Here is the input.
Amino acid sequence: MDCRRFLVAVLGKLIERCPLEYLIVRHAVSLDPVHMVKNEEASIQSFSNLLQVLQKANWRSASQCDSILLQYRKFVSVMKKECEQEFRSFTCATTRLDEFLLGYLEKDQEELKKVFIVVLTLSHGQSDVERGFSVNSEMEEENLKEDNLVALKIIFSELQSTPDFADYSITAGLLQSYKVARQRYHHHLNEEKKKAAETETEQKRKAIQLDLKQVKAKRLKLTESFERMEQEATELAKEAELKKDFHLLRK
Here is the structure.
C-alpha cells in the first residue's frame, strides 16, 4: 500500500511538472514536419490554438494572428505538394528543427518565421543553461574578456560535436585562419585603441558642451536680472519725478 501511494505521488509530481501541462507546448506539435504533411488540417488547428495562446499573452494582435495563420496554411499546403518526402523523413537526430523549418520559409513569411523562433526558443528545462554555466566557470580566467570567452565557447562546442577528437578534420581554411591569427590579434588591438581614443574624444566633447551650456544658462540668468533691475530703476525714476520726491531713488 505504501509503495502504491509512493508511485501515485511520484506520477502526480511528474504530471505537475510535465511541460505538456502548458497549452503552447501541446500545440507546438504543429511545428513537427512529419505531423504537417500527415495531418494537415490537425496541424492547422493546432497552430491556430497556438496563436490564440500568443494573442492572450499579448505577443501578437488578433489581426497579426489572422495573417500568420494564412501564411501557415500556405506553407503547409506548399510543403505537402512539393516537399512531402523531405518532411516525412525528417528526424531531429540528424537535423535541427529550427534550421529545417526556416530553410523552407519564403521572404514574405517573415511574421511566420518570428512565431517559429518564439515557440522553438521555449524550453522545459534548464539543464543546457546550467551546463553552460559550468563550462564558463571552467574557462574563466583573470582578465579574460568577453570576446575571448565567446571564442573559447565556440571551440568547445565544436569539439564536443566530434565524437572522436582524432577524427577531427583540419581543413585548409582552418590552417589559413591559424596563420593569420597574430595579424588579426594586432588588428583587434589597433581597433580597440582607436575605439578608446574615439570614446575619450567624445567624452571631452560632451564635457565641453556641458560647460558651454552652463555658461549660456548663467549668461541668460544675468541678462534677465539686469533687464529686471533696469526696468525697476526706470519705474522708480518716473515715480520720483511725478511725486517730486527723489528720495525714492535710494531704493
Notes: The radius of gyration is 35 Å. Residues 2-121 form one domain. The CA atoms of residues 82 and 245 lie 105 Å apart. The first helix runs from residue 2 to 17.
